[in-house]
């Protein structure tokens, strides 16, 4: 349970940062969501490789949990930060 909470904290934080990055870069439509998908899956793979020492089955119930867990749930903070930073930079010049 503690490992899942730590993973969720890391993924939610990086989703917010990725949203800010997408907004600052001016990404729109599918490009922004592809950035989110790449960041979310990349962070999960990195978490699995670094924190789980390449053996996520020892720390999680399912070995795919670090990569896939929280991908859909953290999409909403990503969209919030994406639209906030996009509007601050490109709409309200």
From TrEMBL:
Topology in membrane: Multi-pass membrane protein
GO annotation, cellular component aspect: EMC complex
Keywords on record: Endoplasmic reticulum, Membrane, Transmembrane, Transmembrane helix
Keyword hit for Transmembrane: yes
Record field: transmembrane: 71-92
GO biological process: autophagosome assembly; protein folding in endoplasmic reticulum
Family matches, as InterPro entries: Emc6, EMC6-like
Cellular location(s): Endoplasmic reticulum membrane
Family: Belongs to the EMC6 family.
Protein name (Swiss-Prot/TrEMBL): ER membrane protein complex subunit 6
Organism lineage: Eukaryota, Fungi, Dikarya, Basidiomycota, Pucciniomycotina
